[in-house]
Write a structure and sequence with these properties.
GO molecular function, one term (chain B): ATP binding
Strand content of chain B: 5-15%
Protein name (chain B): creatine kinase
Pfam families (chain B): ATP-gua_Ptrans, ATP-gua_PtransN
Largest interface: A-B, 54 and 52 residues
Order of helices and strands of chain A: HHHHHHHHHHEHEHHEEEHEEEHEEH
Number of strands of chain A: 10
Shape of chain B: globular
Radius of gyration of chain A: 24 Å
Strand content of chain A: 5-15%
Number of helices of chain A: 16
Radius of gyration of chain B: 21 Å
Shape of chain A: globular
Helix content of chain A: 25-40%
Distance between the termini of chain B: 42 Å
Oligomer: heterodimer
EC number (chain B): 2.7.3.2
Number of helices of chain B: 13
Largest sheet of chain A: 8 strands, antiparallel
Distance between the termini of chain A: 34 Å
Order of helices and strands of chain B: HHHHHHHEHEHHEEEHEEEHEEH
Helix content of chain B: 25-40%
Number of strands of chain B: 10
Strand order of the largest sheet of chain A: 2-3-4-5-1-8-10-9
Catalytic activity (chain B): creatine + ATP = N-phosphocreatine + ADP + H(+)
Structural class of chain A: alpha+beta
């Protein structure tokens, strides 16, 4: 992966050449205060001089980015003036963990996925288990009536939750947006949410105006999101101008929650205590459709296309952007050496109950779908429902001293 | 970000009012100075390399500041930033640098022979002496804005120049990304190694991008002259040694800097400098000399005196803990250095440190023997 520039650097005699036409540069540099324009600067430094050093890196971007791709894309810009360097900055700054493979790039706008398709497509393929945006189509299905067997035994399932994200077409995404665009996202979203009625009727709490009392209550409800501290996010410029135009909306019953301008324009969460995933998903679909309708009345729409489904900031959330999960007690199964394999074959992942990057407490796990893209919302939720039912069955069998089976692996893409 | 104006033209589709940052909870120099009208007049401008007013102020918007400490809240992306955005930066400079006006001229004096004394600070009290400054290479963007190619160019030019130094300035360069574990440990033990910035003041301005690419540390074999490459500025230059011989430290500082400057000129490059602002650096607080000259000195008695703060103020000095800025003093040992950077020459600032520390040590000795220091109180410099 070492670039040609790195090779030049090691040769002392090529010192002048390595600055990029150094002799030419001197002519500019010593003339009377003549500043070099952005255009001229671009020509002084060939793409090879700017190619990042990715030798210690292990993320999807670093696996896919070659000097040739970089050279082709470096000087391109999206209609919002977003560049490749801005997309990959987070992946350059965060080499990754030897065992966890992060994505390493973000989109600044909807067009990023087109203009920089040559790097986004292989990254998407890597992250989404072979989904090929060039040839495949992503199905969207928000018809909750299709879900069956989705009310779990509450001896085991403590809570159920479904989340996704939505971006407002025509406005730049969190890494790239200006303050006015971000404020516009807030305005459009809050105006739409004010139109929700019945069990979805609720209230918006802006982060800049929140009182201490409101803040404490939102923390106690586990609703409040904090300024990002993860360098994955801060290096992607997502924390700029915090907390301007950020906020939380939730319905009075505290079962439908929207985050505004955190990692995406909006994050939408439906949740409740207990095991009624059917009701959680039904509310999720209903709420999403109503919000979509309300923004469309005012001439806005969500970013969506056939190739990538719902378009979000991080490529890992493309497609459905959906994570459906439960907090479930599995004291015996979790100690069984086959637990990991069972989850893998069911296409499920486990997390601690604090969310991603936390450890499980006691015997309670957060179990959710692995996949986001290539299967519809209904398919993914049914997959989680079937999987959790299977896990509970295993747990009950182990309780009775019976043996359990590892299920056959679920096929991911239909051919 | 390099080579572009990132979104600037599109922001013009929204009004200045819609774009103006919310500074209601802010307390930094930028927030004090920036008005909606000023923002409106500056927002469609950019420097030739594409740095915009939003780029200048981002760190100040993201870091409202501390109620008691006044940060600057602005950075420059290139030399032209100070021109194109002078309506914003001139008042900030005036406020930060003791009333320095846009028409004032700054004097540069790096002739160590002009320093009086400084070789006789009592080593029983003065444990170490140090002088640091920064330099930027003209024609290159500064750390918040430079591309990887530019940053590597700065590194290779600096390493080439430093490689020519000989005599007691003979030394070696350690690139951060190629360092072995042993080298790293040695540099940590010597207190030479700088870390990836964690301060949100720096992170929000884009200075930590691509870390550790293009960053490194050079020092001479004697470990008395040290250069940081591509940390907060293109170059930070430090001369230091144990004991109280500030004259020797300053001598080496001036000699080394002058030599480095010559070497750059031979290759057709020069440092960013002008008559009004002196040496141009990334943060407006470091303009002029960019010089902080100081000592670690034992002042357990003086530091407890009720007039300690007033004495320092009159001497134009500031105190810090021995861990550097933002640390507390340990065991009565303080880092005492010049408070000013701009409007005084290098010689003048180091003279203030030398004279001031001499006086403080005298006061310390008086208080040790139970005598008063009232007759030693200095006038305001």
């Amino acid at each position: 992966m070492a670039s040609s520039f790195a090779k030049m650097m090691s040769s002392r005699g090529l010192f002048m050449a390595s600055i990029g036409a150094g002799a030419v540069a001197s002519g500019y540099l010593l003339s009377d205060g003549a500043a070099i324009s952005a255009e001229q600067r671009r020509k002084l430094y060939p793409p090879s001089a700017d190619f990042p050093d990715l030798r210690k890196h292990n993320n999807c971007m670093s696996s896919a980015l070659t000097p040739a791709i970089y050279a082709k894309l470096r000087d391109k810009i999206t209609p919002n003036n977003w560049t490749l360097d801005q997309c990959i900055q987070t992946g350059v700054d965060n080499p990754g963990h030897p065992f966890i493979k992060t994505v390493g790039m973000v989109a600044g706008d909807e067009e990023s996925y087109e203009v920089f398709a040559e790097i986004f497509d292989p990254v998407i393929k890597d992250r989404h288990n072979g989904y090929d945006p060039k040839t495949m189509k992503h199905p969207t299905d928000l018809d909750a009536s299709k879900i069956h067997s989705a009310v779990f035994d509450e001896q085991y399932v403590l809570s159920s939750r479904v989340r996704t994200g939505r971006s407002i077409r025509g406005l730049s995404l969190p890494p790239a947006c200006s303050r006015s665009e971000r404020r516009e996202v807030e305005r459009v979203t809050v105006q739409a949410l004010a139109g929700l009625k019945g069990d979805l009727s609720g209230r918006y709490y802006s982060l800049t105006e929140m009182s201490d009392v409101e803040q404490q209550r939102l923390i106690d409800d586990h609703f409040l999101f904090d300024k990002p501290v993860s360098p994955l996010l801060t290096c992607a410029f997502m924390a700029r101008d915090w907390p301007d135009a950020r906020g939380i909306w939730h319905n009075n019953e505290k079962t439908f929650l929207i985050w505004v301008n955190e990692e995406d324009h909006t994050r939408v969460i439906s949740m409740e205590k207990g095991g009624n995933m059917k009701r959680v998903f039904e509310r999720f679909c209903r709420g999403l459709k109503q919000v979509e309708h309300l923004i469309q009345e005012r001439g806005w729409e969500f970013m969506w296309n056939e190739r990538l489904g719902y378009v979000l900031t991080c490529p890992s959330n493309l497609g459905t952007g959906l994570r459906a999960g439960v907090h479930v007690r599995l004291p015996k199964l979790s100690k069984d050496p086959r637990f990991g394999k069972i989850l893998d074959n069911l296409r499920l992942q486990k997390r601690g109950t604090g969310g991603v990057d936390t450890a499980a407490v006691g015997d309670t796990f957060d179990i959710s779908n692995n996949d986001r893209l290539g299967k519809s919302e209904v398919e993914l939720v049914q997959l989680v429902v079937d999987g959790v039912n299977y896990l509970i069955e295993c747990e009950k069998k182990l309780e009775k001293g019976q043996d359990i089976k590892i299920p056959a692996p679920i096929q991911h893409f239909k051919k | 970000m390099p080579f572009g104006n990132t979104h600037n033209q599109l922001k013009m589709n929204y009004s200045a009012e819609q774009e103006f940052p919310d500074l209601s909870k802010h307390n930094n120099h930028m927030a004090k100075v920036l008005t909606p009208d000023m923002y409106a007049s500056l927002r469609d401008k950019q420097t030739p390399s594409g740095f915009t007013v939003d780029d200048v102020i981002q760190t100040g918007v993201d870091n409202p500041g501390h109620p008691f400490i006044m940060t600057v809240g602005c950075v420059a992306g290139d030399e032209e930033t100070y021109e194109v955005f002078k309506d914003l930066l001139d008042p900030i400079i005036e406020d930060r640098h003791g009333g320095y006006k846009p028409t004032d001229k700054h004097k540069t004096d790096l002739n160590p022979d002009n320093l009086q004394g400084g070789d006789d600070l009592d080593p029983n009290y003065v444990l170490s002496s140090r002088v640091r400054t920064g330099r930027s290479i003209r024609g290159f963007c500064l750390p918040p804005h430079c591309s990887r190619g530019e940053r590597r160019g700065i590194e290779s030019m600096s390493v080439e120049a430093l490689g020519v130094l000989d005599g007691d300035l003979n030394g070696k360069y350690y690139a951060l990304k190629d360092m072995t574990d042993d080298e790293q440990q040695q540099l940590i033990d010597d207190h030479f190694l700088f870390d990836k910035p964690v301060s949100p003041l720096l992170l929000a301005s884009g200075m930590a991008r691509d870390w550790p690419d293009g960053r490194g540390i050079w020092h001479n074999d004697n470990k008395t002259f040290l250069v940081w490459v591509n940390e907060e500025d293109h170059l930070r230059v430090i001369s230091m040694q144990k004991g109280g011989n500030m004259k020797e430290v300053f001598n080496r500082f001036c000699t080394g800097l002058t030599k480095i400057e010559e070497l750059f000129k031979e290759k057709g490059h020069e440092f960013m400098w002008n008559e009004h602002l002196g040496y141009v650096l990334t943060c407006p607080s470091n303009l002029g000399t960019g010089l902080r000259g100081g000592v670690h000195v034992k002042l357990p008695n003086v530091s407890k005196h009720e007039k300690f703060g007033e004495i320092l103020k009159r001497l134009r000095l500031q105190k810090r803990g021995t861990g550097g800025v933002d640390t507390a003093a340990v065991g009565g040992v303080f880092d005492i250095s010049n408070a000013d950077r701009l409007g005084f020459s290098e010689v003048e600032l180091v003279q203030m440190v030398v004279d001031g520390v001499k006086l403080l040590v005298e006061m310390e000795k008086r208080l040790e023997s139970g005598q008063s220091i009232d007759d030693l109180m200095p006038a305001q410099k």
